[in-house]
Design goal:
Strand order of the largest sheet: 7-6-5-4-3-2-1-8
Shape: globular
Radius of gyration: 21 Å
Oligomer: single chain
Structural class: alpha/beta
Low-confidence stretches: none
Order of helices and strands: EHEHEHEHEHEHEHEHEHEHEHE
Largest sheet: 8 strands, parallel
Helix content: 25-40%
Distance between the termini: 31 Å
Strand content: 15-25%
Length: 320
């Protein structure tokens, strides 16, 4: 029987100095990260020849080296050739993964030629900071990234509605190669929390609140301790609280702790929902086992129920 592929928990490191980034790797290891992403573009000073060995030698965890340019949402505004040279150097110095943007892949491929170590996997990424495209466009993008020579596909969009995330789950469902598919923003949080259920290669978390590398990242501590992402798998049942706002709710912490206490294979997440009917029409599979409902959606949720117990107050919904 084939072993189910695990989803790695990756700590995104955005330190301003090499020394601090080295220290953050130790913190990430202590917090239970599987991988760390070194965001070189966040370093205030960076000399590849001197600093890459300091970051890569003796590292406690596998690393993704990312040097994100300004035109793809990063902080690097320098010469493109120098940026790609630094990434290639990181590859030759032992980096486990290199993240390269789809737009830059043709030039980077020419730079690699036949000089790509087998131990280093290339993540080819595309980021959309405005919206989540249609399912057809996402599939075309997915195929384009594979054709570029990617070892791992990475698609990141911006969720304008929680229903946008379902399109990314479908990308993961059809993928036959390691794939990262995430949505930024509060509406996209469930893409990060349910990533292990849908077979994503990895999901990102920050070391602490305020140290996110992208909008909507939860902390690594919450991912492991509050949500138990290291235990989530394809069979895990999904529950959650529907509301707007919903980020303040303590329900996920309470319910997930209870699930672990009784040994139930479930995860309880916050659903930031604008339109309840649209949400229920999309997230209507048996994997979604039940919802709590809070303001302002209780009355609308009542209208969506097929059956209402006379004694019930509308605060919970269960799929049958």
């Amino acid at each position: 029987m084939a072993t189910e592929k695990r989803c790695y928990l990756c700590a995104a490191l955005v330190a301003p100095s090499v020394q601090e980034m080295r220290e953050q790797m130790k913190v990430a290891y202590a917090q239970g990260a599987d991988i760390v992403e070194l965001r070189l573009d966040h370093l205030s000073q960076f000399e590849p020849a001197a600093d890459l060995p300091l970051l890569l030698n003796g590292r406690p965890l596998p690393v993704i080296v990312t040097y994100r340019p300004f035109w793809e949402g990063g902080k690097y505004k320098g010469d493109e050739a120098s940026r790609l040279d630094a990434l290639h150097s990181a590859m030759l110095l032992g980096a486990d993964f290199i993240d390269i943007e789809l737009k830059a892949m043709p030039v980077f491929s020419a730079k690699m030629q036949d000089n790509k170590p087998n131990y280093c996997k290339v993540i080819v990424s595309n980021h959309n900071f405005e919206t989540t495209p249609s399912a057809d466009i996402l599939v075309s993008l997915f195929k384009e990234i594979i054709s570029s020579g990617a070892d791992i596909v990475k698609i990141v969009t911006t969720a304008e509605s929680i229903t946008d995330v379902w399109k990314l789950f479908q990308i993961l469902a059809i993928s036959q190669v390691p794939t990262i598919a995430l949505a930024m923003g509060e509406h996209g949080l469930i893409s990060r929390l349910l990533c292990p259920k849908y077979g994503g290669f990895l999901t990102f978390g920050s070391l602490a609140s305020g140290k996110e590398s992208a909008s909507g990242q939860p902390t690594l501590s919450d991912m492991r301790n509050a949500y138990g992402l290291q235990h989530v798998n394809k069979q895990t049942k999904v529950y959650g609280i529907i509301g707007k706002p919903v980020g303040h709710s303590k329900s996920p912490f309470i319910h997930n702790a209870a699930f672990r206490k009784v040994g139930h294979d479930g995860i309880y997440v916050p659903f930031l929902v604008d339109n309840v009917k649209d949400f229920l029409n999309v997230y209507n599979t048996s994997d979604f086992a039940g919802f709590s409902v809070t303001i302002p959606h209780k009355e609308t949720a009542l209208e969506c129920c097929d059956e209402v117990d006379p004694l019930a107050k509308v605060c919970c919904m269960k799929y049958l």
